[in-house]
Amino acid sequence: MGMVDKEYLTNRIVAAEGGKAEALYDLGLLYSIGHGVEQDNVEAHKWFNLAAMRGMISAQIDRAEVADAMSMGEISEAQRKAREWMVTH
User: Which of 2, 5, 49, 83 lies at a CB distance of 3.0 to 4.6 Å from 36, suitable for a disulfide?
Assistant: First the structure.
């Protein structure tokens, strides 16, 4: 992972902490493709879910796509993680 990726990732995390829907969505994308982070459908679903709750249609679509590749257990884990995130932010 190059410096640019690391910086971009840090920037997105900081923006997501501030509740920016686009940043939440971007984190979902990064985790769904494994760009700069380990590919992780649970994390991708969590971030897409949080962005979708803020009204991002694209996040709803991508969340559904990621969910297709996930087990019910993974989906409920992702939903639990999204709820935990909402409680702490």
Answer: 5
